[in-house]
Structure formats: C-alpha cells, structure tokens
Here is the input.
Amino acid sequence: MKILTTELLTEMQKAVKNTILTKKFGIAFSGGVDSSLLAKICSDLGYDITLLTVGFSDSHDILFSKKISKLLDLPHKTLEITFDTFDDISNKIRQKINTDNLSWNENCIAFYYISKLAKSLDLDTVVTANGIDELFCGYNGYRDAIKEGDKAVIELMNKKIENELKMMKAVNTLSSEFNIKIIQPFLNQDFINYAKKIPVSEKITGQDDLIRKHIIRKLALEIGVPEESANKRKKALQYGSQIHKALTKRYSHTQNIL
Here is the structure.
C-alpha cells in the first residue's frame, strides 16, 4: 500500500504543477479530506495559498473548516451567506446556466460566493479538489454499483467524470464575472487516466462501505492531514454550506405560492 500511496502523491503533485500556473491562489475548502489533502499538497509544494470557505453562519462547513484550518496552520477566510442576497443570486445563476439540475445550481451558487470571496482578497485563481469523489468512489451511488462488480463501478465513474467536467465549465462561466479562474487539477486528463488504473478495491470495499476513498484517506494521513479530516465521511459542498437547504426551501415556498 505504501508504494501505491507514494505513487499517488507523485501523480497528484504532478497534476497540481501542470495545471496551476500561479504561485498565489485560493483553495475552495470545507475541511473534508479532499480539500484538506489538496491544501496540504499545495502548501508542501511551496505555493502561497489561502483557504476559502462559504456557507450560512451556522453551517457545518463554516464551523468545521475553521477547526481544520487551524490544525493545518494555513491562512483561512470565510464568507457567510445571508438570506437577504441569496434569492437574487440563486435566481440570477439559474437563469444564466439555464438548467433545472439541482446539483448544478447548488454548486454554481457555492462557487459564485467562493469567487466573490477570492475577488475581495485580490486573488484571481481558485483551486478545487473536484474529481476525487468521482475517481475514488466518494459518492454513495458507488455502493450500489459495486454490487454489480468493478465494471459497473467504472461505468458510473465515467458518467460522473463527464458530468463534473461539464458542470465545472458552467462554474467557470459564473466565476468569470469576478475575473476568477477555477482550476481542478484532479480533473486533468493525465490524472484521470492514472486514477482509473488504481484497483477499485483500493477505493471501495463493498456495498456496506460507508467511508470509501480509502487510498485517498491513507495518503492524507501519511502526509499530515489531521485524522479528524482524513477519516471524515463525505458531506457534499451544497449540504455542508446549507445551500441545498436554503435552495430547496425557496423552491418549495415558490411552488406553494403558485
């Protein structure tokens, strides 16, 4: 396993170096294993990074990210979303990306606020860990796929990656309003090709596997990511920030009025 994690670290470092062309940037940060691993890799490589977190004031991401950023000893800035601006911004984003895909809308809202925060800090680049969940079986849906075997897992992986690449194009359309570029080193094609070759058994062990992403978590622990982060179960950006809760509440209210 040590050989695998050493190789994985090398490939992740390579993906970062090949996709990020500036020394100073922000990292979209929830405190979870993916964003914490990305932050630790970038910090160890000598980049000048600031961790960026958005969410409603009492959201999981705001609270948890503050704790993990202190343990990582890295600069951290937050932007608290307020209801007085949320409706106008969510409407604007929905019209601009023109999709009823709830997950796309939620992620685009989150990255809109992240871009706004980055702009206020005079940053022009934000780096994300998007791609890790897709490539290392982070989503709960992989538990259903593994029941059908490795082939079903790979088929789901391909669909997830295709969706993520399309969604991040929409995200960059929105971030361009702030002249912010969003970069996803782990959605680089070379890294995708490498990650797909890692045995499925290193990512998910079976249908009852609630943790998943095992090789990612082992690597995170090896390079100094806090255990509380490395072993934390997935909580998607839209849920951790409470954007999903606010958006579905708003849509429900609108439908009731109509």
